[in-house]
Amino acid sequence: xxxxxxxxxxxxxxxxxxxEAVFLVQDLEDQLDDLAQDDRGYDGVEVIVCPPSTDxxxxxxxxxxxxxxxxxxxxxxxxxxxxxYTGEVSPxxxxxxxxxxxxxxxxxxxxYFGETDETVNKKVKAALRHDITPIMCCxxxxxxxxxxxxDSFIESQILGGTEGLEAGDMKSFIVAYEPIWAIxxxxxxxxxxxxxxxxxxxxxxxxxFGTDAAQDIPILYGGSVKAGNIADFMAESDINGALVGGxxxxxxxxxxxxxxxxx
Length: 263
Ligand code: PGA
Known about the structure:
The protein is an alpha/beta fold and 263 residues long. The protein has one domain (7-260): TIM Barrel (Alpha-Beta Barrel), CATH 3.20.20.70. The chain is built from 11 helices and 10 strands. Strand 9, helix 10 (230-234) and strand 10 form a beta-alpha-beta unit. It starts with 5 loop residues before the first strand and ends with a helix. The mean pLDDT is 97. It binds 2-phosphoglycolic acid. 2-phosphoglycolic acid is lined by residues 11, 178, 183-184, 222-225, 243-247.
């Protein structure tokens, strides 16, 4: 890869009330203020925050007023535009709040809320239909890793999640590789091991969409990323950035990751 895209996305999970979310995003703006800013982000790093859905409106209002280079994403969404689906949030509702990204198929959603590759695929298609960039997650469990099944499992998740899509859809598509055993545990994958799996993901995408399309798809690593380890991941050939949980909940630590993800 030549000049690769660099993306840092914060997944706030089920943390922060709407008021706390406003403080956090304002604090983040301040922390990033000394970096050169343009449409693409901060000094070449695209920055996305994904608050809980009840915070989207208040964070949107801050971003709309202050116009920082921070982009907004959601953590989940349903695949229908509207209807009798109690408790769900639709792509139209996200679009209305200038939510340009949505995390889909996070391992916590697969584990606790019964998401499957099939439902992830429906959501991915709905997101693309509405010009929302999916951040589609995949990742193996410790058991699968120890049984030597990482590559085959990841391949099935990638192929299942992208079923029925075309090469053109890949222009607005992000993958996050998050080994389940590294999420929230303080245990990170070795950067070279993460890079190997990410290269495999790229090869799987190339087999379906062609090498050119696959080359340009940003693939992030996720799992206990911090300001102190992001540079090692960014130094790898195929890693375009990170999906950050815990360390995105404080402006200083998240801004530290953004700063250390620069070229
Ligand atoms: P973590 O979470 O950074 O707290 O490990 C990552 C994620 O689940 O997206």
